[in-house]
Amino acid sequence: MTGTDQVDASGTTIVALDAAHTDALVRFFASLPEGDRTFIKEDVTDPATVRGWAEDASTRWVARGADGEVDGYVAVRRLPGWSDHVAELRLVVGPRRRGAGLGRELARHAVTEAIASGARKLVVEVVAEQGAALALFTGLGFRGEALLEDHIRDRSGQLQDLMVLAHRVDATWSAMDTLGLSEALDGDGGPDPA
């Protein structure tokens, strides 16, 4: 979170990634089931890759449990060039905290940070068979924008469909303004809908 840490009832804290968290993040990715790592774009089995992320920590956060271990990771990556108004979200929650609301907390955190950074459109890629992830993001206002059939291959060689979900910031804030909700959120740091 910008400026402050966010703590939930279980003692989990969402903090900006820095060098002090990288060893725990390396352990986190190593502990994920192999099938989960299949759908992560970067090679998270390479400690040098994960440690290098601390240099760009302003767009990456970890959820640390009360024991100091990482339970989740989220990143907001601005796209380059003519798509620089678009931010891509990447989210991973470890098995010990799945189904406990941590994914939703991390996703909300990322959406808030992306909007605060000026992103006008947010996108996330989800494997079509990941029903919980689809429900999480659609519950946050993301809508299906593309279905890419047989677009990714899992570790066993099976082809999987990939869905691209999008959240249009201007449309969301315009609808909230119409309902009179934007004034209520002005004190919460919401973007100017104009």
From TrEMBL:
Entry-linked Pfam families: Acetyltransf_1 (PF00583)
Keyword Transferase included in the entry's annotation: yes
A Gene Ontology molecular function term of the record: acyltransferase activity, transferring groups other than amino-acyl groups
Positions of transmembrane segments: none
Keyword Transferase part of the UniProt annotation: yes
Record-linked InterPro entries: Acyl_CoA_acyltransferase, Bact_Acetyltransf, GNAT_dom
UniProt keyword list: Acyltransferase, Transferase
Every N-acetyltransferase domain range: 12-168
The protein, known as: GNAT family N-acetyltransferase
